[in-house]
Amino acid sequence: MSENKCECCGRKKVRSEEEYKKLLNRLSRIEGQVRGIKTMVEQSAYCPDILVQCAAVNAAMNAFSKELLASHIRTCVAEDIRGGKDETVDELVATIQKLMR
């Protein structure tokens, strides 16, 4: 098994330290935004103010997903296709369909 297998179907991916830190930093910021929304609810903030923050979290999650998907395509998918594993294309299509729901 290659080092660049992805965390799907029991497979794993070894990420560079830079990619690992970048992804975790994004998630930590999103986690902070969600905690902020919780605080707003606890403090009875005005609904539209909370909704604006919810939209920001959704946008941040979408950006995270796009970055992770791009990395997956550049590494795991490309490697599998080069290795003759055509079923990886079907897996990618299914993943994209789930993301677009």
Q: Largest sheet, if any?
A: none
Q: How large is the count of helical segments?
A: 3
- Percentage of helical residues? over 70%
User: How many structural units, i.e. domains?
Assistant: 1
- Low-confidence runs: none
Fourth-level CATH superfamily: Metal-sensitive repressor, helix protomer
- Could you give the distance between the termini? 32 Å
Task: Return the average pLDDT rounded to an integer.
Answer: 90
State the order of secondary-structure elements, H for helix, E for strand: HHH
- Using DSSP, what is the number of strands? 0
- Beta-strand content bin: under 5%
- CATH level 1 class label: Mainly Alpha
CATH-derived architecture: Up-down Bundle
Task: Report the principal-axis shape.
Answer: elongated
SS content category: mainly alpha
